[in-house]
Design brief:
Blueprint lengths: L5 E5 L3 H22 L1 H20 L4 E8 L2 E8 L4 H4 L10 E9 L4 E5 L2 E5 L6 H11 L8
Antiparallel strand pairs: 1-2, 2-3, 3-4, 4-5, 5-6
């Protein structure tokens, strides 16, 4: 019997942005110390633009994870096509299934490949109960589940 799918509403993470900004400040401070004021300002401006671009490109939407034996599939539904806006249930939408692979499963962070797209699940990017279900789904025996 198939388990019901795990439905993850994913939003951009503020913790990711905070971490990237702290790293950028550290690198800009080091470049200022080594190369002077122009080097520090250049690193701060270029790095700030790259951090903002990365934050804007974080995937958002609804990810539905389905497990069949040892294979995992995901249906990705971007924000513009949410079921609540269309009035359709998630299973009735004609979206493509992608293979899902977990390559990092940590206590705070989960790294997934949904098809060719990289998705990092931070603690504040999805509800904690669904993140716990994802950890149980990708847990391998012999490892500690948090």
């Amino acid at each position: 019997m198939l388990k019901p799918p795990i439905i993850l509403p994913i939003v951009p993470s503020r913790q990711w942005r905070l971490t990237q900004c702290c790293l950028l400040i550290g690198i800009a401070g080091l470049s200022y110390w080594v190369g002077g004021k122009p080097a520090g300002m250049a690193v701060a401006v270029v790095g700030g633009a790259l951090v903002w671009r990365g934050y804007q490109r974080q995937p958002t939407g609804v990810l539905s994870l389905i497990s069949t034996a040892s294979l995992f599939y995901g249906r990705w539904l971007p924000c513009e096509q949410r079921p609540a806006e269309n009035g359709q249930p998630l299973n009735d939408l004609k979206n493509k299934e992608y293979p899902v692979r977990c390559d990092y499963l940590g206590p705070w962070l989960i790294g997934l490949y949904v098809g060719k797209q990289r998705v990092w699940l931070w603690p504040d990017s999805a509800p904690s109960e669904q993140l716990r279900e994802v950890r149980k789904l990708f847990h391998r025996p012999g490892r500690i589940v948090l």
